[in-house]
Write a structure and sequence with these properties.
By secondary structure, the chain is mostly helical. Helix 3 packs parallel to helix 6. The strands form six sheets. A three-stranded antiparallel beta sheet has the order 2-1-3. Strands 4-7 form a two-stranded antiparallel ribbon. It has a two-stranded antiparallel sheet with strand order 5-6.
Length: 468
């Protein structure tokens, strides 16, 4: 028996002692003690957090990533800061921190931090994104001239001025569109147009137009690419009002689903290879996160009367049902969702916390059925955010495999950038959930109600005290 397992009976004994006093004269039994009101020994927390508690956790993450993502240019040889555009040359690079300002993971983070600003009104979140977006917009023309002139430029800036993959383009582009929709004064349109041009006209595709890659096999469809490409296209529809972008976004979702959706599991497979029969189904957690996040992002901007909207909504509802059924008792999801012998993974859990809470808040799925799932997922995520604001238990970058061992033994690391945006995004949406919905503890369990519970209906805390 390990240390954690030993602690459970010890804690239960202490709870009995503390909750009901030291009963030396008589034995605790069903007649003399309300045993159902004993406080459970939850391992990651349970119940309804306050918005202040959630924001405090998010703030730690923001402070940490701000320290690890300096919005500064330096000379790569001397380390000296470059402050003037005319001083930029092929030796100039973005100052290196723990994370990269232009990666797809940081595109996710920008979107998440913007959502946190909208949920909290704290301008520290807005300023974090705007400062970095503006820096990229300011330096892009100078670096583009160097690149076009045959100079080798910083790779982190190259993916802005000359994207080579959906990973380079989609997530950062989508965050910039959101920023411009919130503040039209931001001068981000040239970067957005460049990204969208790559996605719409240069990305490799199958013969029917589905986004694809030439690795690890020729004509492979990656579930990750739903998120890396589709939300930016849909948001471009909102920015421009042009229906062609909505048409493309919905077409891509349908074509991905035809290949990747496994209806009997209500999950997506990670990969599909054109000439492979049968198609193995490895239901990797984070890739399924990218899929349901894509559905949320598209539904957020797709017009209510758009012909394909209902099909996208039905897919989201089915996926939410499949995911909720596989949540671990501690609130997490497994690295391979349907394999309980694989580890509990934080980034996927954070994405699901956001998506399920968001779908509840938007009225797409039932608050009564999915609200408790989202709250418990947040407790799980919060338990993995350490005192420095680092997110623990996050799977590192992962390619595609066709065997369980590949996924099951992927390392985890606090510097895996994939966990930071989802953790902040989850917290932001949980704050909205607490503001918009009506969760209460009733007979020790989290319940969601259609409205505030009437004052004549007793609500029980798990400490055994009745509150109204």
């Amino acid at each position: 028996m390990n240390r954690k397992e030993l602690m459970v009976p010890i804690c239960l004994a202490l709870v009995l002692s503390i909750s009901f006093g030291k009963m030396t004269a008589q034995t605790v039994n069903d007649s003399n003690t309300p045993l159902h009101l004993m406080k459970p020994a939850y391992r990651v927390g349970y119940g309804i957090p306050t918005t202040e508690e959630v924001k405090k956790t998010m703030d730690r993450v923001l402070q940490y990533i701000a320290s690890e993502t300096p919005a500064v240019l330096v000379d790569k040889n001397t380390g000296q800061e470059v402050t003037k555009m005319k001083e930029i040359n092929e030796q100039t690079q973005l100052k290196q921190g723990g994370f990269r300002l232009t990666s797809y993971e940081w595109g996710v983070t920008y979107s998440a931090v913007l959502a946190a600003y909208q949920a909290t009104g704290d301008i520290a979140y807005r300023d974090y994104v705007y400062q970095r977006h503006r820096l990229l917009a300011d330096i892009a023309p100078v670096f583009k001239r160097l690149h076009d002139g045959g100079k080798t430029i910083d790779g982190n800036v190259r993916r802005v001025v000359d994207p080579h993959a959906l990973d380079d383009a989609g997530a950062v582009c989508c965050s910039m569109v959101k920023a411009m929709l919130a503040d039209s004064k931001l001068q981000l349109r040239p970067l957005i147009d460049n990204y969208i041009n790559y996605i719409m006209n240069k990305e490799y595709r199958l013969s029917d137009g589905t986004f694809a890659r030439l690795r690890p096999q020729k004509n492979t469809v990656w579930l990750d690419d739903m998120f890396m490409g589709i939300p930016a296209v849909a948001y471009m529809g909102r920015l421009t009002g042009e229906s062609k972008y909505y048409d493309e976004a919905v077409r891509q979702i349908k074509q991905f689903a035809e290949r990747m959706w496994v209806p009997e599991k209500k999950l997506f497979r990670h990969g599909w290879v054109e000439d492979m029969t049968p198609h193995p189904s490895f239901h990797w957690g984070r890739a399924n996160g990218w899929a349901i996040l894509t559905l949320c992002e598209v539904l957020d901007v797709l017009p209510d009367n758009y012909t394909g909207r209902q099909q996208v909504l039905e897919l989201l509802r089915a996926h939410a049902e499949g995911l909720a059924a596989l949540q671990h008792q501690d609130g997490f999801w497994h690295q391979l969702l349907d394999r309980s012998d694989t580890y509990l993974e934080t980034s996927a859990t954070a994405i699901y916390a956001y998506c399920l809470a968001h779908a509840v808040n938007q009225g797409w799925i039932s608050a009564k059925a999915f609200g408790p799932v989202a709250l418990q997922a947040w407790h799980a995520v919060a338990s993995c955010i350490n005192g420095r604001g680092q997110v623990e238990g996050v799977c590192v970058g992962t390619g595609m495999g066709f065997d369980a061992a590949f996924y099951a033994f992927r390392p985890v690391h606090v510097m895996a950038a994939h966990g930071y945006g989802p953790a902040i995004w989850a917290g932001a949406e949980i704050i909205r959930l607490l503001q918009l919905q009506h969760p209460k503890l009733n007979d020790s369990a989290v319940q969601f109600y259609d409205q505030e519970v009437p004052t004549d209906q007793p609500i029980f805390n798990y400490d055994g005290k009745i509150r109204y």
